[in-house]
């Protein structure tokens, strides 16, 4: 049985609901899924297992447009989680609402992929029966690259990295503080995060904390740590 977790990011970026959050200390009775500046998509997803992930594409256009970005995303996800993420040339067609199996993230480049929110990109992430992230699709709005668009390249990169965070189990953070560099979490659902010059490394200290808990939460599910 798989659970789909849907998440979306628009250029205007609506603010997510605020919930009470526990401290960052690892829980004695179960996985920790939220803290200051980070949140995991529990209960559907609480952790990552150690199986390698493949990054694929809906079609050849999606592959051509998004491969350069995803190489950097894959390198950072691998670094932050200790799980291998590899960009492939595979074509894995995706449909909104349908899980992508086999620890695969498939990306689709499409104009206005959500007609109800024409400025949006979005992700559908799936967790398996033991709540491990287990595949995802990402729709990236190609309108961001249209001639005359006011969306900057750093913002486009922020969207792609943000959606990749959703794909492996991060949710919109419930709190959006600033770190020592003045940066708010990339996973905040707000459009003015201050991530304007992070180059190829775009996740902040807040997001990295969330990744670390996706890793340490595996201890509660020993059957998937193989």
In short:
The chain has helices at 60-81, 153-167, 205-216; strands at residues 3-10, 34-35, 38-39, 53-57, 85-91, 104-110, 120-127, 133-141. It has 226 residues and is an alpha/beta fold. The strands form two sheets. It has a six-stranded mixed β-sheet, covered by helices on one side. It has a two-stranded antiparallel ribbon with strand order 2-3.
Give an overview in words.
This protein has 226 residues and is of the alpha/beta class. It has three helices and eight strands, in the order ββββαββββαα. It has helices at 60-81, 153-167, 205-216, and strands spanning 3-10, 34-35, 38-39, 53-57, 85-91, 104-110, 120-127, 133-141. The strands form two sheets. It has a six-stranded mixed sheet, covered by helices on one side. Strands 2-3 form a two-stranded antiparallel sheet. Helix 1 crosses helix 2. The longest helix is centred in the N-terminal third of the chain and has 22 residues, at 60-81. It is globular, with a radius of gyration of 16 Å. Residues 8-26 and 191-200 have low confidence and may be disordered.
């Amino acid at each position: 049985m798989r659970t789909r977790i849907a998440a979306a990011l628009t250029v205007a970026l609506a603010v997510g609901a605020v919930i009470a959050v526990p401290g960052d200390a690892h829980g004695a009775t179960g996985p920790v899924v939220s803290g200051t500046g980070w949140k995991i998509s529990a209960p559907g997803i609480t952790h990552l297992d150690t199986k390698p992930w493949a990054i694929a594409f809906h079609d050849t256009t999606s592959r051509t447009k998004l491969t350069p970005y995803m190489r950097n995303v894959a390198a950072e996800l691998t670094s932050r989680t200790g799980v291998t993420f590899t960009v492939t040339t595979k074509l894995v067609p995706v449909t909104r609402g349908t899980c992508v199996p086999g620890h695969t993230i498939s990306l689709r480049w499409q104009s206005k992929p959500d007609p109800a929110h024409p400025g949006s990109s979005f992700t559908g992430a799936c967790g398996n029966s033991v709540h491990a992230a287990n595949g995802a699709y990402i729709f990236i709005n190609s309108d961001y690259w249209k001639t005359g668009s006011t969306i900057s390249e750093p913002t486009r990169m922020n969207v792609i990295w943000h959606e990749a965070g959703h794909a492996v189990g991060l949710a919109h953070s419930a709190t959006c503080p600033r770190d020592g560099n003045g940066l708010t979490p990339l996973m905040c659902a707000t459009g003015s995060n201050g991530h304007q010059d992070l180059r190829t490394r775009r996740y902040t200290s807040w997001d990295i904390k969330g990744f670390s808990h996706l890793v340490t939460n595996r201890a509660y599910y020993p059957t998937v740590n193989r």
